[in-house]
Design goal:
The structure holds two protein chains of two kinds.
Chain A: H1 2-15, H2 41-55, H3 64-68, H4 72-82
Helix pairs in contact in A: 1-4
Chain B: E1 6-13, H1 18-22, H2 47-50, H3 55-71, E2 78-82, H4 88-100, H5 108-112, H6 118-127, E3 132-136, H7 142-156, E4 163-169, H8 173-177, E5 208-215, E6 224-232, H9 238-251, E7 261-264, H10 273-281, E8 288-291, H11 293-296, H12 303-316, E9 335-342, E10 345-353
Parallel strand pairs in B: 2-3, 2-4, 7-8, 7-9
Antiparallel strand pairs in B: 1-5, 1-6, 4-5, 6-10, 9-10
Helix pairs in contact in B: 3-6
The chains are: A mainly alpha, B alpha/beta.
Amino acid sequence: MSDLRTELKQSIIEQLNLEELSIEEIDNDDSLFGDGLGLDSIDALELIVLLEKDYGIKLTDPNQGKEIFISINKMAEYIESHRTK
Amino acid sequence: MSRAIYITGIGAISAQTEESIFSEKPVIYNSNIFQAISPNFKEYIPAMALRRMSKAIKMGLTAGKIALQDANVELPAAIITGTGEGCKQDTEKFLESMLAQEEELLTPTSFIQSTHNTVGGQIALNLKCTGYNLTYSQENASLESALIDAILLLKEKLSMNSVLVGGVDEISKKITSFGNLNGFLKQGKIDNLGLFSQRSRGTITSEGAFFFNLTTEYNENCYAKIKAVSNFNTDSSSVEISEKIIDFLSRNGLKLKDLDIFFLGKNGDLEQDKIYEELQISIFAESCQLAYKHLAGDFNTVSGFAIWLSCLILKKQEIPAILKLNTVSSTKPKNILIYNFSSNSNHSLILLQKP
């Protein structure tokens, strides 16, 4: 389970060009948007693509992202229950 | 009534620095492709915005902000950008993803930022400038086209008092290296300072961003007055070009003898430089002749480097020896003509004057 969270942090750092952050600096419960990592709407689009590319999860309604992309823990929980690869 | 237009702020990022040139210690490169020297971009751009910017965007935004700071302007009325090839790094990234992922599941960032007007847009976003914003892409006349638009704006809209105008182009891994295949670049390693003595085909290339704050209001910090900018785009002999230059000067109340400095866009290509060399020994034989592409490489908006250098020369009243092509001196430079072209097309003339 923790491997998925580490993998997610690594993917987010690479995909969203957050090279100045390390995996250790991202807490599993940190907010991804707003006061946490400070991601924005373009990042949300990148995360939607990441879910589909890496885990076979296709979000048909972009608003779903608001509930899934809250934190690493929330993302990992969603991926564990919906992944197709 | 025609209003005078002044350059009151300058910002440049290139393969050289002001110090390296004016201390006569130019940076030496041994490659036909070399990168611009990056300042600390974090001093100008928030880290969260910086993370997804390619070099062109970082350079353009930073050079623009340096020019505005230099002019003591917080918010320009307009932003006009010239770029020959736009944001090539993001274009390559996007195209590579398309190929690797068979046109599916493409991430948006590189596509959004691959367009030519990304730099102008990012400057506007950063400054929160909602004014006129336009990007010109016309090969090596891109910056000159942007300058012409800026001049027209300032002359026609009396309420406009500050226009940020500049040019930017970046190196990218694949597209820039195509110059090795089509003859644009010299083959093998070359010392940039030996560019004009090698007598072979091709040139060297690099990247950079050059931004200027233009205004109609004179102040004691002005670098130069932009007298005129002109483009012509026809195959021409050196005789025809001479006639065009004389006519251009005449329209601006000057004669050849009034020119203190002739800044040439020579790029070391044996064929292309023939026209420059014919001008050097004919109408400009008595002028102080300067070159700049051996220092900054040749790319579409590199004439901005010549404008930036001209501003510094006019301000300091000092001509670095590393720029000189002949022994004619100019102790009190006042009028500078910058002439550039590529492959006998997109000829451009920029006339600057000490304010």
